[in-house]
Amino acid sequence: MNYHVLWLQTQQSFEVGADESVLDAATRQGVNLPHDCTFGGCGTCRMKVEEGRFTYADGELPLAMAEEEHAQGYALACQARAQSDLVISVETGPACSPPTVLRATVADLRMHTPDIYHLALDLPEGHGVQYAAGQYLNICLADGEHRSFSMASPPQGNRVTLQVRKIAGGRFTEGVLASAQPGDVFDVELPHGTFCYHASDYQPMVFAATGTGFAPIKAILESLLDDEDCPPIHFYWGMRCEADLYLLDEIEAWAGRLYEFRFVPVLSRASDRWTGRRGYVQDAIAEDFDDLSEHSIYLCGSPHMIADAKAVVALSGAAMDKIYSDSFIFQNEAATVAEMNEE
User: Fold this and answer.
1) C-beta of residue 301 within 8 angstroms of C-beta of residue 238
2) Rounded to the nearest 10 degrees, how much is the dihedral formed by the CA atoms of 26, 28, 33, 36?
3) Would the pTM count as exceeding 0.85?
4) What is the CATH number of the domain that holds 144?
5) At what angle do helices 281-288 and 303-315 cross, to 10 degrees?
6) Residue 200: how many CB atoms within 10 A of its CB?
7) Does one domain contain both 236 and 323?
8) Which range among 24-28, 142-146, 195-199 shows the weakest confidence by mean pLDDT?
């Protein structure tokens, strides 16, 4: 049996069978719903089901869907199966160029910490690709595979910077990147993703990151420097220990250029010398805010942190349609474990 799906924002419609996901049906019929991982882990394909009924094939909520979101009618298009005609609302992401392959040159390669690379790439002069702070790019490998990394700098000039976690035995980080030198070239595809600043909200913002989830948040905050219309900002960054924190001088310098900016590092395995916050970013947010009903929330990092943080901020009244997330879905199990250990 087929059901009819109407996408409110674009007024596009398509048919979906009872045995296929909404995303599969849309893709098959040329309707470009936003998506990334396709297995329910990243949340990019989140949609609000305004009318109709849906279910999931195994009866379980996908990893990137919180109970609170589900209760308010949100679903992940890559996993949801229609049980009736549907009317859906889907965020379309920032206005930008379609994904484009460019030849990028390594401009700088060094270590932020023993585990995290700073990689700066120069894109070709006059490339013309428009992207938004918070989006990511793919580095294309010789065999057709790719590695995805959030851009840690706003779109200014031709340079993009990345923060790349070093993975033991990782094909890219211990193979390709370990031997790379300035002047080497990579093919990169950009832009990808829907994570970006939502100026239309115009309300105080809470940003939370774990590990290299700092990268897209750094890009967004740097894009807001000296912006007279920038709302108040709280930024929570979760790491394990003091040595894991990097670019602290840059973050501290933002205080004079962002309106009411507060930075809160939170360490899960801090030494006795640490006088700052301990534990997890989501718990620190809950301790600091009784009411988040007038705040926009930006979450970036491990799927576990994002799921927990969504539940925590919902209890403080945060509106689900004002929670934006970028869940780092990694290429292999070792990378996933490494990022989860930041919590």
Assistant:
1) yes
2) 130
3) yes
4) 2.40.30.10
5) 10
6) 7
7) yes
8) 142-146
